[in-house]
Amino acid sequence: MNYPDVAITKTIKPVAGGYEVTLSADKFARAVYMSIEGIDNFFENNYFDLLPGQKVKVKVFTTLPLSEFSNQLKITSLVEGYYKG
Description:
mainly beta, four-stranded antiparallel sheet, 7 strands, globular
C-alpha cells in the first residue's frame, strides 16, 4: 500500500489520572500509534486508523507533568514506518 504523508494534530487536556489526547488528521492515517519515553504511562487505545475530519480521543494514564508529557508524546502512523522509494 502507498499511504500518503499525513499531518496529525493533537490537543492535550488534563483529566483525572492523566490526560485526554484528541487527534485529527488531514488525510487517512493508518495504524496511528502513540508512545512516551519510559514506562510511566498507559494508553486507553492505541494502533487505530484515523479518517480525515474524524477526531479520536484517547485517555492516557500517567503522573507526568503536562509540559513533560507534551514534550515526550510521540505520534506516528504506518506511513512513517516504511521506505518510499
